[in-house]
Design goal:
Blueprint (H helix, E strand, L loop, with lengths): L1 E6 L23 H12 L5 H9 L3 E3 L3 E4 L2 E5 L8 H4 L2 H9 L2 E3 L3 H7 L15 E10 L7 E10 L3 E9 L2 H17 L12 E6 L3 H8 L5 E4 L7 H8 L6 E4 L2 E2 L9 E2 L3 E4 L4 E2 L7 E3 L9 E3 L4 E4 L2
Antiparallel strand pairs: 1-8, 1-9, 2-8, 3-4, 3-8, 4-5, 6-7, 10-15, 10-18, 11-14, 12-13, 16-17
Helix pairs in contact: 1-6
């Protein structure tokens, strides 16, 4: 099932670089962030254990929330190295290739074929999904004199937003996820929810046949992640062999008044980033990041793959 998230307000999603992120941000929402937000949404109704079990047992698996523009949906740019002497000597082309983050689904195979040429066609890969701006505010409470601070706000262009893919087993799981996601759209996702940010409406549709074919292609030379994920420790070395990957630092705060007095940070974890191209698929793990708190704090290390042939 494909869900389009159409945002009616600004969005603040901090970058996963490990530094202060209030004054910087990104457009996409990682799969583990979506999972954590859904956990917060269902916790007041004491349904958290059910949701965690759904993800842990593979009844639900999600991608990152990735961009769409109009009817076109986009995939992460594959993390692949395909050397070509002429291209490697062209600094301008290398810079343009590096600047591209997402590939439209309709041009995905064409892009992969172009990587094997000296001069791939990049003219159709330039898209603008919105704009990141910085808003200045003043913190008054507890500060004398008041202190200014800055918040990064992503605003989507008309007709643009984010989509995610849900793989599920059973109608009940799909309906449960849809209801939770709709409630999250009302509450908001990301930072500055108290200011009304991060609100969205959802539209559902079947996964396009072209994307479904890639999702089902588990025999391709590479298996590309559509979201943040992390294999279990005993699988990690084997999974990383004969592939290409990026790492993203995952941290953040624990949004639970029951966990501990005051606001606590989650233990940091490094995960494989979307676009990582590996030799095989893996189920991934569920990681408890709690540290002497009142309850577990789960980080979901499971996501979806698409087959990539080059």
């Amino acid at each position: 099932m494909l869900y389009r998230l159409r945002f009616s307000t600004a969005l603040h999603i901090g970058k996963g670089s490990g530094g202060a992120s209030l004054d910087d941000g990104q457009m996409n929402i990682h799969a583990d962030t979506l999972f954590s937000a859904l956990c917060c949404e269902c916790a007041p109704g004491n349904n958290l254990t059910e949701l965690v079990n759904y993800f842990n047992e593979g009844i639900m698996t999600i991608s990152d929330a990735l961009p769409f523009a109009g009817e076109e949906i986009f995939l992460p740019k594959p993390v692949l190295f395909i050397g070509h002497k002429k291209r490697e000597g062209d600094a301008g082309l290398k810079k343009r290739l590096k600047a591209i983050e997402y590939i439209p689904l309709s041009l995905f195979n064409e892009y992969l074929q172009g990587l094997q040429k000296a001069m791939p066609n990049l003219e159709n890969l330039q898209y603008t999904f919105g704009q990141l701006t910085t808003i200045s505010r003043v913190a008054i409470k507890g500060n004398s004199p008041p202190l200014p601070y800055h918040v990064a706000a992503w605003n989507f262009a008309p007709g643009c937003g984010l989509y995610l893919i849900l793989r599920y087993e059973g109608i009940n799981a799909r309906e449960r996820f849809t209801n939770l996601l709709a409630r999250l759209g009302i509450s908001g996702i990301g930072g500055k929810q108290s200011s009304g940010w991060g609100k969205f409406e959802i539209n559902t549709s079947p996964v396009p046949a072209e994307l479904l074919k890639l999702l089902e292609d588990d025999q391709a030379r590479y298996q590309m992640l559509l979201g943040t994920a992390l294999p279990e420790d005993e699988e990690l070395e084997r999974i990383l062999e004969n592939g290409w990957h990026t790492l993203v630092r995952r941290g953040g705060f624990i949004r639970s008044a029951a966990y501990a007095p005051g606001q606590m940070k989650k233990r940091s974890l490094y995960m494989l980033g979307p676009g990582s191209c590996l030799a095989e698929r893996f189920p991934g793990g569920m990681y408890d990041l709690s540290d002497h708190g009142a309850h577990p704090v789960w980080r979901c290390g499971k996501s979806l793959f698409v087959g990539v042939n080059v």
